[in-house]
Amino acid sequence: QVQLVESGGGLVQAGGSLRLSCAASGVPFGYYAMGWFRQAPGKEREFVAAIHENGGITRYADSVKGRFSISKDNAKNMVYLEMSSLKPDDTAVYYCAAGRTYSVPTTGDGYSYWGQGTQVTVSS
Fold first, then answer.
1. Which of 27, 71, 101, 123 has the fewest CB atoms lying closer than 10 Å?
2. pLDDT tens digit string along 50-82?
3. In sequence order, which residues have a C-beta less than 8 Å from that of residue 77 and are 6 or more positions away?
4. DSSP secondary-structure letter at 56?
């Protein structure tokens, strides 16, 4: 059974930082690309960041480039999203996703498995 569990969300002031974690189980993690997506109230889910199965290639949404960093620890079956210089517009539920592909998908259809999400709220 595949399971992705996000953690690390919370309330932070604008300009602050958070580190999201996603623990994966039930998949051969080293063969999976991982992604982070987010969905704000009343908005569609949007791509945030993604990383190649071996961690060597990353992709970011323009809105988070230079502020967010994705990393992957295949030994621990973990993927992380380091977020800094947070803005109120970053407020959303953040989802971790896994997809067995050699590419680095930036759209949701590139991923087969999704976590339940973790809330990030940035106050102004």
1. 123
2. 999 999 999 999 999 999 999 999 999 999 999
3. 23, 24, 25, 29
4. -
